[in-house]
Design a protein that fits this description.
Pfam families: CYTH
Domain CYTH: 1-211
CATH architecture: Beta Barrel
Number of helices: 6
GO molecular function, one term: pyrophosphatase activity
Protein name: CYTH domain-containing protein
InterPro entries: CYTH-like_dom_sf (IPR033469), CYTH_domain (IPR023577)
CATH class: Mainly Beta
Length: 214
Amino acid sequence: MEVEIKLRLPDAAAHRRLSTYLLPRLRRTHAQRNLFFDAAARTLAAATAALRVRLYGPDDLAPTRAVLALKRRPRLVAGVSRVEEIEEPLDPALALACADDPARLGGVDSPIVRLVADEYGVGGDAAPFVCLGGFRNTRAVYELGEEDGEGAGLVLELDETRFDFGTSYELECETAEPDRVKAVLERLLTVAGVPYEYSRSNKFGCFMAGKLLP
């Protein structure tokens, strides 16, 4: 079970303000391309599941790495996200091949692909994979230090997510102590003068809705 704090920022100005405030704590930045796969009948989506291939790197033709993930049964309440997640590495060249020919994903030797076939009946000849499309994300990763008090050691991810229909901004932090960490992040944003609200929808939900959601 993945547990994350998700706080939505209202606009690019808030994102810039928080980026500037956190800059001394910046550890790395990832360029991500996220693609989603399902049957033509949207079998996985109907079961509140999402199968994602994430490609890393600024060059679409030469990603530095790729990750296959299955996320299921998401819950997002008061800015705390809980979702069943399984991840495994995927060869970047194979990931590109599956993006070009989605049905090929069904033949990949993968525990996740086998699970999707066994539990949902998706990926075989009767219900081959199709690519639903996706979105791009720039993720800045920060680590809080001793000067941040009880937040020391927390790893924060600040996302700028670009959909075909708009851009959203979100601060995330994976944690086993959601109540404590949410309070830490809320204090940090208040000190930084950055407006926020609790996220009420995840990125995949926005993508499937075709519009920005709260």
